[in-house]
Amino acid sequence: MRVSRYLIPTVRENPSDAETVSHRLLIRAGMIRKLAAGIYNYLPLGLRVIRKVENIIREEMNRAGAIEILMPMVLPAELWKESGRWDVYGKELLRFKDRGGREFCLGPTHEEIVTDIVRKEVRSYRQLPLNLYQIQTKFRDEIRPRFGLMRGREFIMKDAYSFDADDEGAERSYQAMYEAYSRIFSRMGLKFVAVEADTGAIGGTSSHEFMVLAESGEAEVVTCSSCGYGANRELAEVAGKEIPFPSGDGIPRPEEVHTPGARTIEEVSSFLGVTPDRLIKTLVFTTDKGEVVVAARGDRTINEVKVKNHLGASWIELAPDEVVRSVTGASTGFAGPLGLSVPVLADFSVLEIQDGVTGANRDDYHLVHVVPGRDFAPQAVSDFRLIEETDPCPRCGSAISITRGIEVGHIFKLGTKYSEAMNAVFLDRDGREKFMVMGCYGIGVGRTVAAAIEQNHDDDGIIFPITIAPFEVIVLPLNMKHERVREVAENLYEALQKRGVEVLYDDREERPGIKFKDADLIGIPFRVTIGEKKAEKGMVEVRKRETGETVDVPVEEAVERIVEAIREEYVRCQGFWKE
Ligand code: ATP
Ligand code: MG
User: Whose CA is nearest to atom 31 of ligand 1?
Assistant: First the structure.
């Protein structure tokens, strides 16, 4: 591809709304452009990277026996009502009506649609197992679209759905996807971990997330190097639940104290001169199962996901001020677990408090000498908090570490959740009708590109792993007006293409500095520079983007040397040369 005939609108300045490296670099490298919040145009270079990622995914899905299909993006409400998700999916589901008043939504995920296909087309155990996948555009009306392709509203996803005759089969399908995912992310040269995760709006019995480790990740990943345990922090259990209620011996009755304006844990603890671990932090949540109050030790963080799962709720949100007032009679910041009429859940860390401080459910007042159990009786005492780095591994008791990660893939065991709701049955060997056992498996294509950039860049720009680079080589003549330089460049460009190499040819009449900057920014793994002096001597310079290593090679050997370097790079990155 000739740069002069192509569209690579690079930008020198960082876009002001881009908070992450990948967002900045995708814009600056001319790969994407924002159309609306969380909705992007993919420009030519960006689309090439997207296609590379899709192709690796496709090859590995096919290798694992999955079969490609394509489902629509516009989905009728009926199927969503059948599964029950029309009402519980929340505002991420963009709903609308057609001219006839019929309800539709834009597909955020496709369990209902694929289940409908399979229940109509599959009758017998002989047709199972079946794993159908697609690579398709999804829409989720995310509250906070951000970080470019990382959290969009419209984004490309690979989603696969497996159907098996029994649990053992479903387990095999799940394992096959686990392995396929590991191969996919390895081939892209990513450093990742697979961890236990929450099942969220998709549901099902268990799941694993594939996390690319990066500082900018929105998720936190708990890992234990002793036993190999790994979990999303929102799911990771906290060990040591078996604590008895405090005795309350010798502790006076609760007493109100005036704490004007002291609302936060820090404010209350400094106002009263008590350490945060003696405070009973109390938060009010609204959920689809009603309001709930959750208490934890002041220096702990309440984990909404655990609360939501305990309640069997589909959504949970911190209550707005009006709701806090109607539940507690006070403004936000003065809530306590005593004397409320809504259910109180206590994290077990509350039981570590012998003589506590908490909100008095009255503006500008707190209570001192509060004893859990004696002064309030939680409806449940369980693990409702986030694990901390100082907590032991829930599996083996060793030290854990918490790092940030980007969730690029998520695999779920669905069991019969959708097949029961939608009556997806087959006739088993013995002629009996049974529900199919399902699994579902997603990869965010754009998010994977963003994650790869988060892990592979320097101050000058992107350093694409060769397996997903938009081009393998950039041919960069320093002076297009110099006849010998242009001739060598043109010949190399043609010859490399003939050898099947993906070449970008910077044939612009630009200053060398600009060409070098652009080449570094867009992250092409190899650069061949043709300068006047070296060209006269029959030499060109080959430079590797990642390491900056350069070698001079004779023009007549250049093609073979470059092909060899590319081959080595593929083998290093994914273990083999191109398919
Ligand atoms: P998150 O917790 O980040 O919102 P999720 O659990 O909702 O993700 P899944 O429903 O498991 O995501 O979707 C499968 C994959 O699709 C995710 O692993 C992720 O790579 C990708 N994905 C999900 N939401 C987005 C989004 N808003 N933008 C880009 N990719 C996304
Ligand atoms: Mg989500």
Answer: 444
Q: Is 53 in the pocket of ligand 1 (CB under 6 A)?
A: no
Indicate whether residue 164 lines ligand 1 (CB < 6 A): no
Nearest CA to ligand 1 atom 12: 410
Whether the pLDDT of residue 90 is over 90: the answer is no
CA 441 – CA 140 distance, rounded (Å): 17
Residue 418 CB–ligand 1 contact under 6 Å: no
Does the C-beta of 408 come closer than 6 Å to ligand 1?
yes
Q: What are the tens digits of pLDDT across the range 399-412?
A: 999 999 999 999 99
Pick one of 3.10.560.10, 3.90.960.10, 3.30.479.10, 3.30.1120.10 as the CATH number of 255-382: 3.90.960.10
How remote is the CA of residue 126 from the centroid of ligand 2, in Å? 35
Nearest-CA residue for atom 18 of ligand 1: 409
Q: How many other CB atoms are there within 10 angstroms of residue 194's CB atom?
A: 16
Q: Regarding the domain delimited by 471-572, which CATH topology (the fold level of the hierarchy) does it fall under?
A: Rossmann fold (3.40.50)
The structural domains of the chain, with segments of one domain joined by +, span: 11-237+402-454, 255-382, 471-572
| Phi, psi torsion values for 254, nearest 5 degrees | -60, 145
Q: What pLDDT, on the 0 to 100 scale, is given for residue 200?
A: 77
From the list 440, 430, 425, the residue with the least C-alpha distance to 128 is 425
| Angstrom distance (rounded) from CA 455 to CA 463 | 9
pTM across the whole model: 0.90
Share of the chain above pLDDT 70, in %: 100
